[in-house]
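Note to self: keep these together.
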Amino acid sequence: MHPRTQELLSHLRDARAELARALAGVPADRRQEKPAPDQWSVAEILEHLAIVEARIAGMVDRDVAAAKATGLAREMSEEPVLPSIDMEGLTDRTTKRVAGEISQPTGSLDATEAWAKLADSRALLEAAIREGDGWALETLSQPHHRLGPMNLYQWIAFSGAHELRHAAQIVEVGKRLTANG
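Structure:
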């Protein structure tokens, strides 16, 4: 496995472990509760993560397949990917960000269902990453609505950073719920 692939899979595993720790800190019977009317419940946060990750997985899968069919080069660099994104900025919770309409949770899933959907989206993303293993994914890019053009490595890294951002949000929600009784 290429070092860049290993780096990204490790990053995603670490982010998922952090998310699981955050989730464990919120009582199961409170994961559907919104801490305030204009804020997401833990279940909605998990559903949002699954939506976004599934979209990234689809993009990576589609773009890698199309590029391989037209002569995508093999990866020559072993430079780490994570330093190429603003991890601190992506995980910073001091600035509120509003998800686009397509990434909004429906609120129709409970936390268990949303976690299962998130596991499914991770399987799709990991499969897409493995399809791209050893290929020059840095040469393939797609725009992010706020961050501008990002190559596929950066999109994958973004997925982990996005999960870390929302893990911190789940911790905040858990604290608000327990403070409110």
